[in-house]
Design goal:
The protein has 205 residues and is an alpha+beta fold. It folds into two domains: 123 residues, Jelly Rolls (Sandwich), CATH 2.60.120.10; 71 residues, Arc Repressor Mutant, subunit A, CATH 1.10.10.10. 34% of the residues lie in helices and 31% in strands. The protein has six helices and twelve strands. The strands form three sheets. A four-stranded antiparallel β-sheet has the order 1-8-3-6. The protein has a four-stranded antiparallel β-sheet with strand order 2-7-4-5. The longest helix is centred in the middle third of the chain and has 21 residues. Keywords: Chloroplast, Plastid.
């Protein structure tokens, strides 16, 4: 709601999009004038190259901002919802014309978003796929979960496909890693999107 009030106060037109889980928005070269603001939910931003290689960029949540950039047709971006999500899309040109890019709301949103990029970079810098997968799982559960003793629960489905994209590995590697590491147990309640992570030891890697 605060973003709608902010945009209305500054007389900036906007569109609101509702994304169900697994829904996607694709931004290509012709969409380089768009600014996306996550107003609720969780999304995965992926950079996709011409040869279909996918590179994880960030996991964005409420109040994060994604600004599309001109890529000369060589790459495009995919915004995929991993939970029920609402996104505001505004025109970058109008945004700049209003000269509000230095407002406290925008500065904080940019700072929080950059932090999300840095988290992914830190994980992707790990050469070991096992470390990348474990760090990604722990990062997601700690960030979005509820802690109860040695268990952390998230209220959305974390699929093997999403983990594979986020860690630049394969689904089989994700499954093998989860099955082989005895320090954690990842369970999904039947017919729900609830996952529980159980930590059995202090040293996971």
């Amino acid at each position: 709601m605060k973003w709608i009030i902010f945009l209305a106060r500054n007389r900036i037109p906007y569109y609101v999009y509702e994304l169900s889980k697994e829904d996607k928005i694709v931004l290509n070269n012709v969409d380089d004038n768009k600014i996306l603001i996550i107003i609720s939910g969780i999304t995965v931003i992926t950079k996709i190259f011409r040869n279909e290689i996918k590179l994880p960029v960030a996991i964005l949540e409420k109040d994060n901002i994604f600004i599309s950039k001109q890529n000369q047709g060589r790459i495009y971006y995919e915004i995929k919802a991993i939970s029920h999500t609402y996104i505001i899309i505004i025109n970058k040109v109008l945004f700049k014309q209003k000269k509000i890019h230095n407002s406290p709301e925008i500065i904080k949103a940019h700072y929080d978003t950059v932090t999300k990029y840095e988290e992914i970079i830190m994980i992707m810098n790990q050469k070991s796929s096992t470390k990348r997968i474990l760090l990604m799982i722990l990062s997601i559960f700690v960030k979005f979960g509820y802690v109860n003793k040695n268990k952390i629960t998230i209220s959305f489905e974390l699929s093997e496909k999403s983990l594979a994209i986020l860690t630049n590995t394969s689904i089989s590697t994700v499954n093998k890693t989860i099955n082989n590491i005895k320090s954690i147990t990842l369970n999904k309640k039947i017919n729900t999107a609830i996952h529980t992570l159980t930590i059995k030891k202090a040293h996971l890697i």
